[in-house]
Input
Amino acid sequence: MASSFQKLSIPCVGEVVIPNPEPVNLNTNLNCRSKSYTKTLSTVAVEKTPTAGKFGSFGGAFVAEVLIAPLAELEAKFNSVLHDHEFKMELATALKDYVGRETPLYHAQNLTNHYKNINGEGPEIYLKREDLNHGGSYKMNNVIAQAILAKRMGRKSVITATSAGHHGVATAAVCAKLSLECTIFVGTRDMQRKPSNLQLMKLLGAKVKLVDGNFQAAASESIRAWLENLETDYYLAGTAVGPHPIPTMVREFNSVIGKETRKQAMEKWGGKPDVLVACVGSGCNALGLFHEFIRDESVRMIGVEGGGSMGTSESGDHDELHCASLVRGEIGVYHGAMCYLLQDGEGHITTAKSVASGLEYPGVSPELSFLKASGRVDCYTVTDEEAVDAYKRLCRLEGIIAALETSHALAYLEKLCPTLPHGAKVVVNCSGSGYNDAPIVLNMS
Ligand SMILES: *Cc1c(COP(=O)(O)O)cnc(C)c1O
Output
């Protein structure tokens, strides 16, 4: 399964760049196998002082020489706009008037009732309605911010890759608004599952390039295209993975989700949430909700990954049919950063599978990897079937059509709610809308 992008970006001797390397016995033989890191890293992941781009021992920038300067330029620009009043005003206005923030913190009364025990006791369920953003998902928060940044860097065109399609649709829309050229790489497998997203991206004026395979293939191909046009094109990363500064930047632009949640919780019940729940594909919407609360020890955080199908695969091996990088993965390097990832006994990346295409990523955010390794975030899986049941449950109980990705978080409520005390406040990140998933769900019924 090793793609050529891996060959480009996984550290081979002489190509490793970690800002202020830590005194960790990283196996010095940096061949392209990642298993050898596992033992030394897991023991030190928790205690290290933060360095730019490092989350404990996770993260870093394991990239080919050619990317070092463009990433350094991006980091410098990102750091400067964070303190730039004009940028902040432009972004705030766009988030309000174009994206439609703030999104509601919705008290899901019927879902709450569904989880009450025979004494009428149970937790209170709230949904952070990121599905109501323009473009239908939380992805817009990051896309609009980076597109404004791209303009400030003088770039005329944007390259990206998408899986679920939400990131692609958001990017195409924002590029139209900001008069940026836009090229989006999509895997044929994802395109077949969600053809309407492809049409939307084209209507919004984007060039769509199909790549044989799934998101992994599309992502690798998009990076290759960017490498050919480093000077003129902006690579608009859709999620908090990849080499520094991308994980930090994308998380920062999505942390508006948690900041609003804190304010809204205070307004609604005069306190903090007790439990935060989010689905985890590459970990971006989860971090967007969690980041604001990391230091609030009383706030529990739960990430829910795709456990895959209970059915058997063509090969009859059903353990491989999942995308649970945090729960079942091991530490290694993927797409330029150290994180938990799915790999076989040889250290080769294995294919991530889920009914929700947006969860199909074999790696996961380095920051979320760190939060998992340090015990701050608990991680679980639910199956495709449980997610589809949760999709239908929310439709019937609340009249809300949430994405199949989001439905993984919702499905975990079945296990979580009976264990919670009466009145506990649970916030589920409703990461996106699931209109496009309806054909998939109906096909499975
Ligand atoms: C992309 C996407 C996800 C999965 O990605 P994360 O990086 O884990 O957030 C989840 N939900 C929706 C609606 C998405 O579009």
Q: What stands out?
A: The two ends are 32 Å apart (CA to CA). Residues 123 and 424 are 5 Å apart (CA to CA).
